Amino acid sequence: MTFQTLFAAESGKLYFGDMIWYLICFAILLVAVKHYAWGPVKDMLEKRRQQVIDDLDSAAANRKKAETLANEREAALKNSRQEATQILSDAKTNAQKQGEKIVADANDQAAQIRKQAKSDAAQAKADAINDARDQVADISVAIAEKVIAKNLSADDQKDLVDQFIKGLDD
Asked: What is the residue range of 86's domain?
């Protein structure tokens, strides 16, 4: 291989000087591309990479937050169910106690009414007996006055009535 064949293209006869010129143009082009295109593209890619990382971190944080909120909601729902069950249980207990109290009050009132009725009946009986005694006494006195043809004193009347009533009981 000769020196010319190394640096020259066989069909177009490329020379070493042309090759250096092409290399210099290529190097200038690389520097220009690096300065004007590669830097902004690299910066844009870095920003995009950082945005993707931030989005992934944000998504993970949001997912954790959502899981936490879901767990809190589930716990709150469980607590509200327990509270509702407790409220219902308390309401049933209170209703049962209230019902028992109402029944006890009604029984007490009924007992009081019965007691009052017995008392009223006893009083009415006593009043009736006293009225009957008074009437019997008046009738007895009237009969006795007619029989004896004289007026009796109050003590005499009372003695006669008591004797008469004793005679009725026997």
From this structure: 3-169
